[in-house]
Design brief:
330 residues; alpha/beta; Rossmann fold
Length: 330
């Protein structure tokens, strides 16, 4: 089949390689002509300096990208998502199946990505929406290392269609789920705890502390799931605990890297200036903190990370604040 990939970053190109390996025709759109030239001329992923199949073609023309396929795979940061949707919408003449592989929540609205698409794209042009999520670093997927993810949609047939597009027996296995809320929440919230995990390692606090963070992070995520009406079983799946574990323990995680730098004494502005890729956990932390405050949800870890990021609280004070909370049953 023909698939258009909106976003030529490392994750967009890793997924493009999976699709190409599965014998699909892929056209990648990116606004950056340097990225497009590297794909077309040298057949490499610029961000990772990894080879990609020669039959993957790229363009800076949104009209060509939209007209190429009835399936649009969006892999762009949430802060530019509305811009990307708006540009693509100019050229949509027929219904499109939307797949999203980025992870985040809009801070100002606490809208999930599927809700942003539903808000912006008229119903007659939105054939369906599927979230592709799970423990999956681009650095490993593009090398063909074993990866297992979940295609989630409120429409099971759409989830199965996307499963068929990406699933192979060599290295990329795909499950399906109809709990779109849970998949999107898990993929977004885990980035906050990845920041905290990196901070713990940057401060040299050890593996015990990181294991405790992951465990208690799951508790805070479960409170979100319950309040938001997501299926708590999804928390135990690939888009929940699976994604949480990998992003909290791997140096490939840009959120982990950002937290590590903050733990080593850099402030938020210095950290962001030193990063080459978007750190979604920072925006998601602001969104989750505001949502928790509005719903009176107890989120001590998220609140502590918010204070460190946005109010410049010393990480040691944040740690002592967490440890100094009153004793209680688990």
């Amino acid at each position: 089949m023909k698939i258009t990939v909106i976003g030529g970053g490392s994750w967009g190109l890793a997924l493009s390689k999976v699709l190409s390996d599965n014998n699909h025709d892929v056209l990648v759109y990116d606004i950056n002509s340097k990225i497009v030239d590297k794909i077309n001329d040298l057949h490499i992923c610029l961000q990772l300096n990894e080879d990609i199949p020669k039959n993957i073609v790229a363009t800076t023309s949104m009209i060509d990208a939209v007209n190429f396929s009835d399936i649009l795979l969006f892999v762009v940061p949430t802060k530019v998502l509305r811009i990307a949707i708006g540009e693509s919408l100019k050229y949509m003449k027929n219904p499109k199946l939307i797949i999203n592989a980025a992870k985040g929540i809009e801070p100002e609205t606490f809208l999930r990505i599927s809700e942003i698409f539903s808000e912006m794209i008229p119903a007659n042009l939105l054939k369906g929406f599927v979230s592709l999520s799970g423990p999956s670093h681009a650095e490993e997927v593009i090398k063909g290392l074993t990866t297992v993810v979940t295609a989630s949609s409120e429409n099971e047939a759409d989830a199965i269609k996307v499963q068929d597009l990406f699933h192979n027996t060599e290295f990329f296995r795909v499950y399906t789920s109809t709990d779109l809320k849970g998949a999107e929440l898990g993929g977004a919230l885990k980035n906050i705890f990845a920041l905290a995990s990196g901070l713990i390692m940057g401060k040299g606090l050890g593996d015990n502390a990181r294991a405790a963070l992951i465990t208690r992070g799951l508790v805070e995520m479960s409170r979100f799931y319950e309040m938001y009406g997501a299926d708590p079983k999804s928390l135990m799946g690939l888009s929940g605990i699976g994604d949480l574990v990998v992003t909290c323990t791997s140096p490939h995680s840009r959120n982990f890297q950002a937290g590590f730098k903050i733990g080593n004494g850099k402030d938020l502005e210095e950290t962001l200036n030193s990063m080459t890729m978007v750190v979604e956990g920072i925006r998601t932390c602001k969104a989750a903190y505001k949502y928790a405050q509005s719903k009176n949800l107890e989120m001590p870890i998220i609140s502590a990370i918010y204070e460190v990021l946005f109010n410049k609280m010393d990480p040691d004070i944040a740690k002592n604040m967490l440890l100094g909370r009153s004793s209680k049953p688990e």
